[in-house]
């Protein structure tokens, strides 16, 4: 089995081994489950499932504080280089703080009382991405029979698509702040009075999804109540923000700086999403091991991945094996598995060197496909 895994999925020093990109989807569907790996994953990580509230709260609040402090300096400073430096700090801080939406989706809320509320109050609503837009969406990406299919809201076969899809994928994220403002300030209130519009808003404009064919179902019970509360808060905030700008209470320049920083956060996240998977599945259900091999780990010793893939996202492939393990424990899990699993284990074939090599691999795949 190791030989079958090596050709389509191994990267060495940023180079891609094997050029048959089109055939990879077919080979991926033939990958059986590595039972030894899956057994080791379960046995070696049993003690890592509990989130540490001190780590969660301190990391999240410090990241948000740094992000908002940078935003304030970028708005108030009259010196261009200071504004640029502060904006960069703000982007990185808010990007890391925003990454906790992923943890909110997976964590047991009883283990972290108040964290969902804290996230939405500090980041989710102010940045127009309340957690209901990810909760109930992201878990479908982890469903055994949905991953990589047209029912997966977070998957597109990008490696098998045309070259123009990659720049479009990134450029679209630039418009995210404007689209979210319009959704919350205009569409959401109007949809309360127009049932047909409400159906469209719920199905197509209420989830952080990249699959345009995906349609969201209405939430029920507690999830529905959380949705309404968060959506209402986001609508009030959006209307207040736009009213402040149109009345002159909020200077236009300050508003544009805010939009630029939020848009930059969205672009950075979109780039990270671009390399979270190899995107080589053509729509068929895969084995758990195949799903793992279609995903990406960028483990240490590289340091940059902690910036562009924060809050455990550098271990995205491992996360697909351990979705309930909190972000701060994934590094420990990776070390244990790397040390214990045999050299021919599938686990060693999902590790990559960095962002540049992954982007090159994906771009080359689309160019071959489009030729």
UniProtKB/TrEMBL annotation:
Sequence intervals crossing the membrane: 55-73, 80-97, 117-134, 164-182, 235-268
GO molecular function, one term: oxidoreductase activity, acting on paired donors, with oxidation of a pair of donors resulting in the reduction of molecular oxygen to two molecules of water
Signal peptide positions (record): none
A single BP term in Gene Ontology: lipid biosynthetic process
Keywords, ordered alphabetically: Membrane, Transmembrane, Transmembrane helix
Keyword Nucleus included in the entry's annotation: no
InterPro entries: FA_desaturase_dom, Fatty_acid_desaturase
GO annotation, cellular component aspect: membrane
A Pfam family of this chain: FA_desaturase
Domain Fatty acid desaturase: 81-349
Protein name: Fatty acid desaturase
């Amino acid at each position: 089995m190791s030989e079958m895994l090596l050709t389509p999925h191994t990267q060495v020093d940023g180079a891609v081994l094997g050029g048959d990109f089109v055939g990879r989807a077919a080979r991926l569907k033939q990958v059986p489950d590595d039972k030894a790996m899956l057994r080791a994953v379960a046995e070696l990580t049993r003690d890592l499932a509990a989130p540490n509230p001190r780590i969660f709260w301190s990391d999240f609040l410090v990241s948000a504080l740094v992000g908002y402090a940078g935003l304030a300096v970028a708005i108030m400073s009259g010196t261009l280089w200071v504004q640029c430096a502060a904006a960069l700090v703000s982007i990185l801080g808010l990007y890391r703080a925003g990454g906790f939406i992923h943890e909110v989706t997976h964590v047991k809320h009883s283990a972290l009382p108040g964290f969902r509320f804290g996230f939405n109050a500090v980041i989710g609503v102010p940045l127009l991405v309340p957690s209901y837009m990810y909760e109930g969406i992201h878990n479908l990406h982890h469903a055994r029979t949905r991953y990589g299919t047209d029912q997966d809201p977070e998957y597109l076969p990008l490696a098998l698509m045309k070259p123009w899809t990659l720049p479009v994928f990134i450029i679209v994220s630039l418009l995210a702040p404007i689209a979210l403002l319009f959704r919350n300030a205009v569409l959401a209130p109007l949809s309360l009075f127009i049932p047909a519009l409400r159906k469209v808003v719920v199905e197509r404009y209420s989830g952080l999804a990249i699959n345009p064919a995906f349609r969201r179902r209405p939430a029920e019970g507690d999830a529905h109540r959380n949705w309404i509360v968060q959506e209402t808060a986001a609508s009030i905030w959006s209307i207040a923000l736009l009213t402040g700008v149109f009345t002159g209470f909020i200077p236009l320049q300050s508003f544009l700086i805010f939009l630029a920083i939020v848009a930059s956060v969205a672009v950075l996240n979109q780039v990270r999403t671009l390399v979270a998977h190899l995107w080589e599945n053509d729509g068929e259900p895969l084995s758990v091991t195949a799903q793992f091999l279609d995903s990406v780990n960028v483990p240490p010793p590289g340091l940059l991945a902690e910036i562009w893939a924060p809050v455990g996202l550098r271990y995205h492939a491992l996360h697909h094996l351990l979705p309930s393990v909190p972000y701060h424990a994934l590094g420990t899990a990776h070390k244990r598995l790397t040390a214990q699993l045999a050299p021919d284990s599938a686990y060693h074939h999902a590790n990559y060197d960095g962002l540049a090599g992954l982007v090159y691999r994906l771009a080359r795949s689309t160019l071959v496909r489009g030729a």
